[in-house]
């Protein structure tokens, strides 16, 4: 086989004689190089495809993990909120029970009952053999059941107190517990019960009590015998005292300069329970006097007038 080389500059030519092995080597280069490039491209494509599929699978797995993490965080938040709500509810029930226990002890003393007949200082009598020691953790359902049982105990205590109130009235204390007179020694009614113009906004509003103006620091008196069930600062009322008189009656004395009693104190008719002031939403020294009968506010004027008719 001959290969002729022609020079374009000088027009001369040169012939090369290829032997058997040279021809074979030349053919291998001409045919093998393209085939090798094709094979190499094929192998590269085969390797890149699994990498692409593997990368997509990893991306999907990462997205699923992130979504599961978000769902888990949301479930944890819901569980925390539910536990917090249940904890607050249990705390309110415990506070209510403590208040009723104190009230029960004082009512028992007022009624002069036999010792042990109504003993609110002792835990409820319970017993039974020990079934075994277990490490038990309460879940939310069990806590709800426990709160229901606690509420049932609370209802039972309230029923006992209602019986005590009846006993107190049967023993001749009704006169002391009858609401009458003014909650101050000296003063005048500056605002009556019912519809009025709000002293701050001028807009029509409903006044749930009677305002009795007087000298700052003068005594605020209990209008009947009873048990103090609440004292403290209340929005709009300022310093407030609440007294339960039995038979569904409750009185409130608000805007005090200072409260002189605490929950559980037993007061008699005419006892000083606070000092007149202007705390809370008030324009001057006075006592805001409210009367509630079976949970509904009533006009105190009729109870104030009972003294004037005698």
Q: How would you concisely characterize the structure shown here?
A:
Helix content is 45%, strand content 25%. The chain is an alpha+beta fold and 310 residues long.
Query: Which CATH top level class of the domain at 188-308 fits?
Result: Mainly Beta
Summarize the amount of helix as a percent range.
40-55%
Looking at CATH, which topology of the domain at 188-308 would you report? Glucose Permease (Domain IIA)
Termini gap: 151 Å
**Biggest β-sheet: count, sense, barrel?**
10 strands, antiparallel
Note the beta-strand portion.
15-25%
CATH superfamily of the domain at 188-308: Glucose Permease (Domain IIA)
Determine the number of helices (DSSP H or I, runs of at least 4 residues): 3
Instruction: Report the structural category.
Output: alpha+beta
Count the beta strands.
Answer: 14
CATH structural architecture of the domain at 188-308: Distorted Sandwich
Q: Which regions contain 5 or more consecutive residues with pLDDT less than 50?
A: none
Overall, the morphology is elongated
Please compute the radius of gyration using only Cα atoms.
46 Å
Succession of helices and strands: EEHHEEEEEEEEEEEEH
The mean pLDDT is 77
Task: Provide structural commentary.
By secondary structure, the protein is α+β, with helices and mostly antiparallel strands. Among the domains are: 2-65; 188-308, Glucose Permease (Domain IIA), CATH 2.70.70. Helix content is 45%, strand content 25%. The chain has 3 helices and 14 strands. The strands form 3 sheets. Strands 3, 6, 7, 8, 9, 10, 11, 12, 13 and 14 form a 10-stranded antiparallel beta sheet that branches. A two-stranded antiparallel sheet has the order 1-2. A hairpin with a 2-residue loop joins strand 9 and strand 10. Helix 1 packs parallel to helix 2 (140-177).
